[in-house]
């Protein structure tokens, strides 16, 4: 059963537009929602609406804003199973993972509801008498949030919750292919007590979104941009924001390495590679890109990884499976091109075929509908710098494997693609773990754990091609949605000039002990 989804500005559904996007279940092809798309004018109008609503929302005491966030978390918890099943139905994510994603929204709300009472500034001592110095966090104004659909509710919450808590108004543009999930999350937040116009939902394609954002930045109705998506689009958004002297919060792609040392527990490493490489069908920004394995254990690692991957159940995402279908037809087309990057010097492992699962390319134990966007898992050994499979994000169920001799070489290989989101090392040697941490350029490091997985109170974000150093989650994200303001209050009754009218201490620096 499908329904029509429209943009919501100031609490009102936008009138039917001329263009429609069909959000379908990638596991079955079933229509989930007809999405009425807005345009650049609609996006800019939403930003103007948010600007008008923001001041009154910021004037609400921060603890009261925290209560709204608490209510949102309670509503998500009360609707958790229905929301998770909608996520699974719309993007094909395994139900267990979808439930975990919804739990992350709840965790984020739980963490930040207390921040409403902890938006701390500081009282700072002055160098002059009868004068006090203070610092305050001020909301930035209006945040434009643009998110991908592979995590249609969790990742948006990383932006929406802190932005709203800090007193900002928001224009949220989710991915079209996860529109029904986005609308559901919007409704839960809207019913938590948000005033109309503080959170606005806009469905638009990429070109209209960029044009609308350009217009809004020019008009001064957007003061912060948060974007989760590809490195290519992130670079364009960063350039656009730079023209307006703004620093966006960019969470981009990854080519996440996993180093396996000679002393690693190989069963543990294989378990980690299986989940981080193929969970969500490899469609995470934190998915494993390349396993960099010490040459002495490479044959055994490959044997075990191949065996585990062949045994994994792939198919119907409502069941107990490693992964379900690709998110949408456009990702299937892109992944087909990625498979074309497998070269003659590579060796393929992990399944009975390469490409889309079906009668022509069957897979043992497959539990899905062959009409869905299901693809065989692929392990490609022999990848090396200069190969597209080594150098670029693949965004699909494919993992590269290469070898190394020294840890310095492993670190060099791990950094070579130029991304810097997540990384992992499997080792029993603490010295190797800390050497890896110091040398790796990634914003996140795991030891004997996967490249995937985030917690609501830990900073999330990357460097290089993976982002501009901004961080989401935990208290660190507050710096994205607030600006520091300083206040100096002189109650001496006369002008005291900093660095000039100061108390002078007269020490005897020539003194020496007898």
TrEMBL record:
Domain Aldehyde dehydrogenase: 17-486
Domain of life: Bacteria
EC number(s) reported in the record: 1.2.1.3
A molecular-function term among this protein's GO annotations: aldehyde dehydrogenase (NAD+) activity
The UniProt record lists the keyword Oxidoreductase: yes
PROSITE patterns per UniProt: ALDEHYDE_DEHYDR_GLU (PS00687)
InterPro entries: Ald_DH/histidinol_DH (IPR016161), Ald_DH_C (IPR016163), Ald_DH_CS_GLU (IPR029510), Ald_DH_N (IPR016162), Aldehyde_DH_dom (IPR015590), ALDH7A1-like (IPR044638)
Quaternary structure note: Homotetramer.
PANTHER family xrefs: ALPHA-AMINOADIPIC SEMIALDEHYDE DEHYDROGENASE (PTHR43521)
Family note: Belongs to the aldehyde dehydrogenase family.
Name the record gives this protein: aldehyde dehydrogenase (NAD(+))
């Amino acid at each position: 059963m499908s329904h029509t989804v429209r943009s919501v500005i100031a609490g009102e559904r936008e009138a039917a537009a001329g263009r429609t996007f069909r959000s379908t279940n990638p596991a079955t092809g079933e229509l989930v929602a007809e999405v009425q798309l807005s345009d650049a004018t609609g996006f800019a109008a939403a930003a103007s609406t948010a600007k008008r609503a923001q001041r009154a929302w910021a004037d609400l005491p921060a603890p009261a804003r925290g209560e709204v966030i608490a209510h949102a978390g309670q509503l998500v918890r009360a609707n958790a199973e229905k929301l998770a099943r909608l996520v699974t139905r719309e993007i094909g994510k395994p139900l267990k993972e979808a439930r975990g994603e919804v739990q992350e929204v709840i965790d984020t709300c739980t963490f930040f509801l207390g921040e409403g009472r902890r938006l701390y500034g500081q009282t700072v001592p002055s160098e002059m008498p009868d004068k006090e110095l203070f610092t305050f966090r001020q909301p930035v104004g209006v945040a434009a949030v643009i998110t991908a659909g592979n995590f249609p509710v969790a990742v948006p919450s990383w932006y929406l919750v802190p932005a709203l808590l800090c007193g900002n108004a928001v224009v949220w543009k989710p991915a079209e292919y996860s529109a029904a999930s986005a609308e559901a999350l919007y409704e839960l937040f809207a019913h938590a007590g948000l005033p109309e116009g503080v959170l606005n939902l806009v469905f638009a394609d990429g070109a209209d979104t960029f044009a609308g954002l350009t217009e809004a930045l020019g008009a001064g109705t957007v003061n912060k941009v948060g974007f989760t998506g590809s490195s290519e689009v992130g670079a364009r958004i960063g350039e656009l924001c730079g023209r307006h002297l703004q620093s966006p919060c960019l969470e981009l792609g990854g080519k996440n390495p996993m180093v396996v040392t000679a002393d690693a527990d190989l069963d543990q490493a294989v378990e980690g590679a299986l989940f981080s490489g193929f969970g969500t069908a490899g469609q995470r920004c934190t998915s494993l890109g390349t396993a960099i394995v010490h040459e002495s254990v490479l044959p055994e690692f490959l044997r075990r990884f191949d065996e585990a991957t062949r045994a994994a159940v792939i198919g119907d995402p409502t069941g107990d499976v490693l992964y379900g279908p690709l998110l949408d037809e456009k990702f299937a087309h892109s992944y087909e091109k990625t498979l074309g990057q497998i070269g003659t010097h590579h060796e393929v492992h992990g399944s009975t075929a390469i490409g889309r699962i079906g009668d022509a390319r069957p897979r043992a134990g497959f539990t899905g509908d062959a009409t869905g966007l299901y693809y065989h898992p692929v392990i490609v050994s022999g990848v090396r710098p200069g190969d597209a499979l080594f150098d670029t994000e693949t965004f699909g169920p494919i993992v590269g494997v290469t070898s190394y001799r020294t840890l310095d070489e492993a670190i060099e290989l791990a950094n070579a693609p130029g991304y810097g989101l997540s990384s992992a090392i499997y080792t029993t040697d603490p010295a190797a773990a800390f050497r890896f941490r110091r040398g790796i350029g990634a914003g996140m490091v795991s030891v004997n754990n996967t490249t995937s997985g985030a917690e609501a109170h830990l900073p999330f974000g990357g460097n290089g091609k993976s982002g501009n150093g901004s961080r989401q989650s935990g208290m660190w994200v507050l710096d994205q949605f607030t600006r520091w303001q300083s206040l100096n209050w002189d109650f001496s009754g006369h002008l005291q000039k900093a660095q000039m009218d100061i108390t002078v201490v007269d020490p005897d620096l020539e003194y020496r002990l007898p």
